Amino acid sequence: MSKFEFPKSIASRPVWGTLEVRAGEHHLMIAEAEGAEAVIDIATPDLMAKTHLIYIPKGTDFSERLQTLNPAQFYESPSYATALHRIRRVLEDAHMGLQVYLTGTEGIMGQAMNEVMAVGLPHTAIQTEHRGSVARRIQCVHCKGVTEDVEVDPFVCSHCGLNLFVRDHYSRRLAAYQGVRVDAEDHGNVPEPKGIYE
To answer: What is the per-residue pLDDT across 131-165, written as a single tens digit (0 to 9) for each?
Structure first.
């Protein structure tokens, strides 16, 4: 199952929606992994004929199904970092009224949302839908390093090696949750890791 019902939390944590077709002459869809299912769910021939679709498989294989939707342009990328140049180019060349659809994990949607906002498109032109992994993108507040795909709490920072507590505080600027040293006052007293949403 690729949909997840997030528990209620603090106000800084984003709330993801559900994609729906919007009127417009130009559409950009960025789908990561199971996010492809959200695109498939709303695809119509008219919509796809006006869509530039960027797909990041991340271990899934929806490529053939997405291509059979006949998007105006289709690009498959091995990673978000590799797709970033193309995303920026599409946004730089965007026409008035571009509709943006982001779907996949929180980390990818947050990073892509920052790119869209950086070129001046209004947030009302952006739709999101979480699909797939609930792993988080975490920034260590101590060394400022970012660790991708964190599934347990606490976890070891991949940059400085500190044991970090995964907070629900989300930084939209960084598109990451915050990790704080769990044993700051009692070194070595680290609880057993468990799934973030357990």
So the answer is: 999 999 999 999 999 999 999 999 999 999 999 99
Side chain identity at 155, as an amino acid letter? F
Q: CA 101 → CA 17, 178, 193, distances in Å? A: 11, 26, 34
Does the bond joining 193 to the residue before it have cis omega, within 30 degrees of 0?
Answer: no
SS3 content of the chain, % helix, strand, coil (to 5): 25, 30, 45
pTM of the model: 0.93
3-state secondary structure of 18: coil
pLDDT at 95: 86
- Place 1 in a pLDDT band, splitting at 50, 70 and 90: very low
CA–CA distance, 197 with 56 (Å, rounded to integer): 25
Name the residue with tokens 């997405």: 66
Q: How far is the C-alpha of 115 from the C-alpha of 8, rounded, in Å?
A: 27
Instruction: Please give the Cα distance from 55 to 38 (Å, whole number).
Output: 12
